[in-house]
Design brief:
Elements lengths: L18 H31 L6 H22 L10 H17 L4 H23 L3 H6 L11 H4 L5 H7 L7 H8 L6 H9 L1 H24 L7 H19 L9
Helix pairs in contact: 1-2, 1-10, 1-11, 2-3, 2-4, 2-10, 3-7, 3-10, 9-10
Length: about 260
């Protein structure tokens, strides 16, 4: 398991900053990346309208990216509500989609084109196992074996999330983060109690992590647009670093859990 080492030299938030002020800093940084994401989303929607030259791999890229930022918007919308603890759910799924996109980018174009079909077949295979209805599977089956003959293992494309963390760009994303984000969805009692006790700081930590995932997602998706936004992405990250250095004396990456 990959666990990020604790840096004992990290600085804390200034003592005269309220919880609301600290959270606002993190939200502002998150929104910087969300603004660039809107430019990518416009490109994706335009490409979806003009389907010429698109293949299966583009459907995976488009669907994953749009879903990622819908999750981000949902997490942001929970701020200040009684349901803010639900932010752990969309932030975790953001991490899952980022890890999958990172792995997807390492595959050949031929293998990438199989991802969308296998992922779709896996869903319809599970639908069949639950309901006995094989119409959906047969509709997109192609050259794959019948729904009765194929196994889930044959259709799985992605490794376990621990392995995806290890493989992701020099292991810069820790599996420890995934375990932390899974504490709430898995109903861990100690996690629930901790969240109730440290409600504001836990929400802030969650959104902070989401901002970092947003930056990474912009980078891995930009590869498929010939790095059109790379300069703007890195410039925005430098602005984000400056915010955290000015406030806490550390960059956004250093301030991660």
């Amino acid at each position: 398991m990959i666990v990020k080492k604790v840096n004992s030299k990290k600085r804390a938030w200034p003592g005269d900053m309220s919880e609301q002020q600290r959270t606002q800093v993190v939200l502002d940084v998150f929104k910087l990346f969300r603004e660039i994401a809107e430019e990518q989303i416009i490109l994706i929607k335009s490409a979806k309208r003009d389907t010429q030259g698109l293949d299966s791999r583009h459907h995976f890229i488009f669907a994953t990216t749009l879903s990622f930022w819908r999750d981000a918007d949902f997490a942001l919308s929970l701020y200040g509500t009684q349901w803010d603890f639900y932010a752990f759910y969309p932030i975790r799924t953001m991490m899952e989609k980022l890890l999958k996109m990172g792995y997807f980018n390492t595959l050949s174009e031929e293998a990438q084109n199989q991802v969308w079909q296998k992922e779709s077949l896996l869903v319809t295979k599970r639908h069949y196992d639950m309901s006995g209805d094989q119409k959906l599977y047969n509709k997109i089956r192609g050259n794959f074996p019948s729904v009765e003959a194929i196994t889930e293992k044959e259709l799985k494309v992605f490794p376990h999330y621990e392995e995806l963390c290890r493989l992701y760009s020099n292991s810069k994303i820790s599996y420890y983060w995934y375990r932390w984000l899974s504490g709430m969805p898995h109903g861990n009692l100690a996690f629930l109690l901790m969240h109730e006790t440290l409600k504001d700081s836990e929400f802030r930590r969650c959104i902070h992590m989401g901002g970092f995932f947003g930056y990474e997602m912009l980078r891995v998706v930009d590869v498929h647009f010939a790095n059109r936004h790379l300069i703007k992405i890195e410039s925005t990250m430098n602005s984000a670093r400056k915010v955290f250095v000015d406030v806490m004396g550390q960059s956004q990456e250093e301030a991660m859990p």
